[in-house]
Design a protein that fits this description.
Layout lengths: L1 H19 L2 E4 L5 H12 L3 E6 L14 E5 L8 H12 L4 E4 L4 E3 L7 H29 L2 E6 L12 H21 L4 E8 L11 E3 L9 H13 L8 H12 L6 E4 L1 H12 L2 H12 L3
Parallel strand pairs: 1-2, 1-4, 2-3, 4-6, 5-8, 6-7, 7-9
């Protein structure tokens, strides 16, 4: 009888912890920032819904307690609602949505096929918007929640040959800033996290570089940029810097809109604020080696 009572008590405590724990729903959690953030929040005692395009390939997150791995492809609106419903069924609520899924497209605009252009905006912008819209009924019903959108220093500063990527991140900045006015009166906060250069696979699976060598006018800039990318690894911040910024945004209780992650991001954004367009672009050209 004593053993049964102890087991029952432990069960009640376990259930109570699950009921009181908060839940974060993360897109793009198969690697990089998304995966690091999922592990960070799980270690802090949160429930985590780690979504990705191919959950069947995940071998680490699905072994962790209070982590649910689910399928969401942000370019497929139909995949969102089933994952949200399953998360609510399992954990009771969604307290934080982290819109993290995204990748970078770089190269001369003329070199990009139309389908690559569409994919860049469908992933980084349209997918983020539709995911946000899908979670709003749940948050609006309980009049609380936090939506955190992973932007970039590239949402405040544009670098050469990044017209597509920066176009998407500038869009995320504008979308988030406007939406925060809309949702704040009903208890929902919107926040932006702006990472700089981070040690992830951004230059691999999360990077789409297009070039057409017949477009001779661009090749000097392409060569300089590729050389620059090959040397960037030495000065990148660890992914934990972004996970910590996301944690701060989710838990500090403040109405802060933007959280900068990484010393390089802080430098670029500070310079952009204090310099004229001519001063900033001249300095950037010099730093990148573009004449």
């Amino acid at each position: 009888m004593v053993i049964l009572a102890v087991m029952k008590t432990k069960s009640i405590i376990h259930k109570s912890r699950k009921m009181t724990s908060k839940t974060i729903f993360i897109t793009g959690a198969s690697s990089g920032i998304g995966k690091a953030t999922a592990k960070f929040f799980q270690e802090k005692g949160w429930n985590v819904v780690a979504t990705m395009r191919k959950p069947e390939n995940e071998e680490e997150l699905n072994q962790l307690e209070n982590v649910m791995v689910a399928k969401v492809d942000v370019t497929d609106k139909a995949s969102m609602e089933p994952a949200l419903s399953a998360a609510i069924e399992k954990f009771g609520s969604i307290d934080v949505l982290l819109n993290n899924a995204g990748y970078g497209a770089y190269g001369p605009l003329e070199a990009f096929p139309s389908e690559n252009i569409d994919r860049q905006f469908n992933t980084n912008v349209n997918g983020l918007i539709h995911m946000t819209k899908a979670v709003l009924p749940y948050m609006r019903k309980k009049r609380s929640g936090i939506i955190i959108n992973v932007s970039s220093v590239g949402g405040k500063v544009a670098f050469p040959l990044g017209s597509l990527y920066h176009g998407t991140k500038f869009a995320v900045e504008g979308f988030s800033e406007a939406l925060h006015y809309e949702l704040e009166p009903i208890g929902i906060k919107v926040k932006l996290v702006e990472p700089g250069g981070i040690k992830t696979d951004f230059s691999g699976r999360s990077f789409d570089f297009a070039n057409d060598e017949s477009l001779e006018e661009y090749q000097s800039m392409v060569g300089q940029l590729l050389q620059l990318f090959s040397t960037m690894g030495e000065n990148l911040s660890p992914v934990s810097v972004v996970a910590e910024a996301i944690w701060e945004a989710a838990t500090d209780g403040k109405n802060t809109l933007r959280y900068i992650a990484g010393e390089d991001a802080k430098m670029y954004i500070a310079n952009r604020k204090t310099q004229t367009d001519e001063e900033f672009t001249a300095g950037l050209k010099q730093a990148f080696g573009f004449n």
